[in-house]
């Protein structure tokens, strides 16, 4: 059996790792961590399990917050609306979930399900739909397997509930974003209901444990006075793309996403160079001039040069000294169909995707 009991202190490492794998977006996991820790103190540890602990016909459901990360920093998460959304979806499906899972392993939604699982006495599956964070509901590996987010339930803290079942993902994305704005810029959801048999083909397994390993590696490096950035590069199999000081920021919220661009003046081995980070909720492109350092679906992460602390796109500010890391995506994101769904051109960038490790070899 592969069952892990997640207690209050375990969430510290998971939240740090989730901030890293959030690639700048997904909302600040610290908020979800505090909510989950409160639930664990009241109801006991969360049981983290693998899919192998369940039967193939068992039902699993994801619970998540939806909205612009900047808004979710202002409106603190609550458990009751998440449970309300879950119950609404279960009523539609005519059966209860055997376990829950995280919609995305990066950012707020990686830790949000811990609070619901703990309060309801359900296990949480060590898996997610993408191995990182992405802004759109359909930008998951489930989509590539023909598994859709609908029916989808939404709820807010006032007690409103909505059930949605659309004809395609384009309509779902448009309607959900519109309703989310009417609900104050963020709301609570239950979505991507599936059997365990479907999950084994479409989820990134072991992804919660992956975030915990990253967090533990960072804590250990700090305790031993080692280079925390190097520790994160080692544990993730990533690359340090650039080091520098943030010198300019451009930000806006267009009703759907937080969009922006950060300019970084190089330090140390990158002195005299300038890097630009482009983001739409998540960092999607890193480049120096016309040369691409990394692009989606690979992960682009900013961390503090001294502490290794992950920095979300909303937290990037003038004067910060940051290291930009490029982490390889899970292999499933590198197929032609996946690149069409979440590659650079899917976000409007006129660039063909190349793997971060290939780009690193070119530079060396």
Automatic annotation (TrEMBL):
Top-rank taxon: Bacteria
Residue span(s) of domain S-Me-THD N-terminal: 9-165
Ranges for domain S-Me-THD-like C-terminal: 168-355
InterPro entries hit by this protein: S-Me-THD-like_C, S-Me-THD_C_sf, S-Me-THD_N, S-Me-THD_N_sf
Name of this chain's protein: DUF917 domain-containing protein
Native source species: Roseateles agri
């Amino acid at each position: 059996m592969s069952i892990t009991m997640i207690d209050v202190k375990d969430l510290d490492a998971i939240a740090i790792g989730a901030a890293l794998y959030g690639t700048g977006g997904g909302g600040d996991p610290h908020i979800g961590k505090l909510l989950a820790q409160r639930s664990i103190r009241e109801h006991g540890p969360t049981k983290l399990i693998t899919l192998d602990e369940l039967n193939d016909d068992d039902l699993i459901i994801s619970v998540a917050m939806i909205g612009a990360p900047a808004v979710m920093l202002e409106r603190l998460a609550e458990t009751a609306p998440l449970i309300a959304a879950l119950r609404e979806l279960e009523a539609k499906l005519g059966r209860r979930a055997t376990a829950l899972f995280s919609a995305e392993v990066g950012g707020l939604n990686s830790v949000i399900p811990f609070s619901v699982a703990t309060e309801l006495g359900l296990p949480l599956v060590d898996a997610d739909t993408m191995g990182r964070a992405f802004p759109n509901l359909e930008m998951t590996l489930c989509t590539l397997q023909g598994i859709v987010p609908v029916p989808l339930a939404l709820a807010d803290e006032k007690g409103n509930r909505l059930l949605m079942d659309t004809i395609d993902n384009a309509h779902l994305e448009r309607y959900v974003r519109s309703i989310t704005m009417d609900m104050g810029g963020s709301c609570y959801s239950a979505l991507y209901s599936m059997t365990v048999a479907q999950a084994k083909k479409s989820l990134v397994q072991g992804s919660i444990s992956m975030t915990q390993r990253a967090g533990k590696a960072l804590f250990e490096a700090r305790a031993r006075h080692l280079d925390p950035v190097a520790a994160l590069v080692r544990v993730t199999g990533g690359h340090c793309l650039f080091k520098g000081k943030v010198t300019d920021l451009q930000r806006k919220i267009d009703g759907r996403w937080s969009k922006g661009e950060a300019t970084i003046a190089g330090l140390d081995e990158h002195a005299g160079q300038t890097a630009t980070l482009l983001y739409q909720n998540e960092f999607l492109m890193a480049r120096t001039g016309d040369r691409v350092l990394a692009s989606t679906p690979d992960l682009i992460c900013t961390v503090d040069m001294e502490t290794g602390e992950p920095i979300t796109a909303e937290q990037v500010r003038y004067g910060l000294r940051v290291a930009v890391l490029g982490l390889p995506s899970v292999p499933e994101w590198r197929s032609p169909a996946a690149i069409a769904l979440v590659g650079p051109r899917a976000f409007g960038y006129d660039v063909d995707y190349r793997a971060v490790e290939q780009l690193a070899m070119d530079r060396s």
